[in-house]
Amino acid sequence: MKFIKNAVLIGMGASLASAAAHAQVVINISGAVAFRDSAYRSIRALYGANLGSENADTPAKPQTSLRVTWTGQITNLFGGQTVTIHAYFNGAVAGIQDLTANRDVSFFATATPSDTNTVPLKSDLAFGSVFQQSTPFTVPSLEDHKFGVTPVFFVKSTSAPAGLTNITVQQYRTLAANGALPGWFLTGNTNDTNLIYYVSRDPSAGQRVIVQRESGFTGTPIFYQWDTNSAKFLPDPTGRTSAQIVSTLNVSGPAISFLTGVDAINVNGGANILAFNGYLAAVRPYSSVSNDLSPVINGQYSQWGYEHLFNLASASQNVTGFRDSLLAAINTDLQTNPNSLPISKVQVERAAEGGPLSPIQ
Fold first, then answer.
1. What is the pLDDT of residues 39-89, one digit of tens each?
2. pLDDT the model gives residue 361
3. 43 has which bridge partners?
4. Closest by CA position to 252, among listed 278, 276, 234
């Protein structure tokens, strides 16, 4: 009898442990860097007052973090279950590859602040700033939910000539093909003889796809990285992250790169954003709080990409339920977002990156 009683107790303990394990929801998100500020605020909004803890790699400005892990309860979706969300904004193209290749992504292991340990997990959702068809990773076909528009800016370094205020399609093609150009080619001032170098994002970035397709550049770009030890530009075989580009443009010699607003604001307070083909994406001055993006809305500024949220067709009910609530929260955030727009506000549309803009009838 004692043996049977112990066996029953052991069995009950195992059942309780199993129930505890099932009383947790884990959702993993990777993908685009461009609108991580909106994603951050929207995920926080889903937790509301029930957020337990958060671990961000930039705790002083967490909306700019690349890695964040949250834990707490999202009661309207999952009741009293503990919900852990891992996010790693590793690039739009990378996020699509994460889903299609079912590859491991390195997320923060816990939501304990300052815990830098990582854990390899599969992504459930991926943010994107490009269509899946614009990447090499087209199989299997992912479910695509478009929810917004984000402009991409050319940004000059703090050491670039004051007369550099605009870049055209033809100038960009020449810059990307050569890697560096004399300043006068971009400013029209013959006194600007110093070379201006091209600094580019890495291939995981949707922004790189947007910029090259918008200008019709089909070759192999040449770009450089700033070497702080020698204080000069050296060839760059891979490209930079957005954080590395911000750092470069703030300390390097004359250079041009591209960023979205959440990062461009950190180069000379946004004052170094260039016009593209004669148009700015936002009426100056660019702000971290609120911007007039009328040139994007009305089609004068064309260098932008749709915001997408991708998932596999086989995604679980937990994932799809969370996805739908996240999209709704993001739509609310985008109504006042300084860097991006909800689709409902944009009066033009396109079928692909770099494709022609058409007015919405």
1. 999 999 999 999 999 999 999 999 999 999 999 999 999 999 999 999 999
2. 83
3. none
4. 234
Residue 17 has pLDDT above 50, yes or no: no
The SS3 call for residue 260 is: coil
Confidence class for position 226, pLDDT limits 50, 70, 90? very high
Please give the Cα distance from 229 to 224 (Å, whole number). 15
Q: Quote the pLDDT of residue 23.
A: 64
Q: In what order do the strands lie in the sheet with 24-31?
A: 51-56, 67-72, 82-88, 24-31, 125-128, 304-311, 143-151, 341-342
Alpha-carbon distance of 18 to 123, in angstroms, equals 24
| Exposure of 339 in the CB half-sphere (CA atoms within 13 A) | 24
Residue 213's nearest CA partner among 277, 96, 303 is: 303
Q: Pairing relation of β-strands 24-31 and 125-128? A: parallel
Domains of the chain: 17-149+306-359 (3.40.190.10), 153-297 (3.40.190.10)
Percent share of the chain, pLDDT over 70: 94
Beta carbons within 10 angstroms of residue 233's beta carbon: 22
140 cis-preceded (ω within 30 degrees of 0): yes
Crossing angle of helices 206-214 and 169-178, rounded to 10°: 120
Residue 295: asked if its preceding bond is cis (omega within 30°), the reply is no
